[in-house]
Amino acid sequence: MSDGSLDWMASAGGPLRGTLEIPGDKSVSHRSVMFGALADGVSTIDGFLEGEDTRATAAIFSQLGVRIETPSPSRRIVHGVGIDGLQAADGALDCGNAGTGMRLLAGLLAAQRFDSVLVGDASLSKRPMRRVTEPLSKMGARIDTESCGLPPLRIHGGQALTGIDYTLEVASAQVKSALLLAGLYADGETVVREPHPTRDYTERMLCAFGVDIEFSPGLARLRGGQRLRATDIAVPADFSSAAFFLVAASIVPASELRLKQVGLNPRRTGLLQALRMMGADIVEENPSTHGGEPVADLVVRHAPLHGIEVPEALVPDMIDEFPALFIAAAHAQGATVVRGAAELRVKESDRLAAMAKGLRALGLQVDETPDGGTIHPAELQGGVVDSQGDHRIAMAFAVAAQRARGEVRIGDVANVATSFPGFDVLARGAGCGLAEA
Ligand SMILES: O=C(O)C1=C[C@@H](OP(=O)(O)O)[C@@H](O)[C@H](O)C1
Ligand SMILES: C=C(OP(=O)(O)O)C(=O)O
Fold this sequence. Notes:
By secondary structure, the protein is an alpha/beta fold. It is built from 12 helices and 25 strands.
């Protein structure tokens, strides 16, 4: 896993130009390995994200007795062991930096005959797990946490689970997915209701694996005791990774980028709507479907942006894109206001605090509130920013520097490899000023 020892120096390059292939979607990649492992038969995954988070998930399934081949980069062949075929691992299962990995696995492993221990890196070890352990315990699971509900998770297998009808307290696709995975093994029906619809990859993919699951925005329902049938998965390009280039090309004069065949699941594209409200020039071309998901080329050209009040209803649909949004806001005309985004405080870092601190270090005024803040744009100066070991904060400031007056040193960027390996190479190729410090 990342050791956090790498820094970047970023500065204004030229206009951003060219056609970029963005790596595979992280959410879809995690799930494709999990469901392929549980299926009867062999599943091939194309476009698998070669990131540390998703590789950690694949390594965990190897520890659980699943054969996974890597015939070439971004391709996996998963030899499914069937719904009851996982075997106890020898040691702890290391989810690395991945909240998605740990929370989904908590649901899945709570239903196995054997015990498991889930651990993570320093950042993941500070992230709240009660949001999954509490509803899972209502289903009959036994999971011990550290105090305050923190990892490691010590999961006691061999429990008989019962389905529940549960309304999520926070809009979280990870919690929903953990309950649905446990629900596959539970007696009776599991129903998950959401305060606001979240990404539905678990539902769509279970369906592709032959599970009878009913879902609509805000609701998912399945019966326990079903089997999964192997299927091939085509992973679309990750919108959350594309987001950094959407903002970079929007703010750097004379830029024009084409981002090829990016996943446009409506539960992921809140940033597209927010940027368009700000005046961004982003056009969708060559629409198609890829692995059952809508995709299109995104053609983005520089455009003058103006500040907005980000509609609260958009927050869950752009939950990972706020670091990028803050940078767009920093370069807009007029203030941008964010509300209803307290969840950002429990991601890989406290993203509201990390973005406010970083932008202040570059000369901006940011008024932070418990669930958001107001960004007052101004010309960015050079300076030193701490990414807090958070991949999305690091990439956001690499983008910010493309319009700064001086050099920006970004500390602790190795974690970019968790979601977007090769970001720096792609960014340089497109015209960004970005080098290892
Ligand atoms: O289910 C998923 O794949 C994810 C759900 C979101 O987390 P929450 O469920 O905590 O909102 C998101 O932030 C994360 O990057 C991926
Ligand atoms: C929050 C994120 O991921 P996870 O929860 O899987 O660590 C993210 O990628 O921004």
